[in-house]
Amino acid sequence: MSTFSNPANSLILALSKGRIFDDTMPLLAAAGITVTENPETSRKLILATNDPHVRVIIVRASDVPTYVQYGAADFGVAGKDVLLEHGGEGLYQPIDLNIAKCRMSVAVNAGFDYDKAVRQGARLRVATKFVQTAREHFAAKGVHVDLIKLYGSMELAPLVGLSDAIVDVVSTGSTLRANNLVEVEEIMDISSRLVVNQAALKLKRERLQPILEAFERASRLNNQA
Ligand code: AMP
C-alpha cells in the first residue's frame, strides 16, 4: 500500500459519479465536508474538499470496494449489488445509507412466457453483470441457467437474441419499458452502503469516527423520509 498518496493523517473517500456521488453530498455536508469540484464538469479523478485532510476519488462503481479493500481509499460508498459481486473481503460495512435505492430483478422480452419456461424446467440463458447474485438466485429456485457475463446495456441482450432473460438493477422501470422488456421477478432490494477499510478503521479512527457518526445520523433521517 502506498502511504505517500494516502498519508496517515488524511482520509480518502471513494465514490462513483452520478447517483451515488449526488446522494452522498448531503451526508458529507452533515459531517461539515463540501466537495469543492464538480466531477461532472471536471476531468480530475481526485477532488479536493473544504477540509485539507479529506479528498474524494472518483472511480467506477464496481471498483469502489477494491480501492477500499486495498487501502488506496479509506472509505467508500457502494451499492449492495456491487458489494455482493465483490464479496466484501477486507471491508467493514457499518451503515446502510439508504441512498441510491433500486431493486435487482429478472426481466424478459414482453412476449416471453418466463413462468412457463421455469415450470417446464427449460435451461435459460441469462445475461447479467451480476453473475454471483444471479447464480445464487437461480440455484435457490432450482432453475438451470447459462449465465452470460456482460459489462453494460444488459437490456439489449434479449432484444437481439443473446439471452432469454437479464438480471439487472431497476429503478423507475422506464429503461425496461422503453425496450419492451418486462420485470418478471424481484430478487432483492438494493441500497448503497458505507464501506470502510479495516486497517483504516483502527489506524485513522480519530478522523474517521466523527464522519461515520454524521453519516449514520444523516442516513437515519433518510430512512425516516
Ligand atoms: P430505470 O430506467 O429508472 O429503471 O433505471 C434503470 C437503469 O439505470 C438500469 O440500466 C440501471 O443499470 C441503472 N440504475 C438505476 N438505478 C440504479 C442504482 N441505484 N444503481 C445502479 N444503477 C442504477
UniProtKB/TrEMBL annotation:
> Pathway listed for it?
Amino-acid biosynthesis; L-histidine biosynthesis; L-histidine from 5-phospho-alpha-D-ribose 1-diphosphate: step 1/9
Family label: Belongs to the ATP phosphoribosyltransferase family. Short subfamily.
Q: Which GO terms describe its cellular component?
A: cytoplasm
Major location, coarse class?
cytoplasm
Name its species: Massilia violaceinigra
The top EC class is transferase
Q: Which gene encodes it?
A: hisG
Subcellular localization, as worded in the UniProt entry: Cytoplasm
Identification of the protein by name: ATP phosphoribosyltransferase
Q: What is its EC number?
A: 2.4.2.17
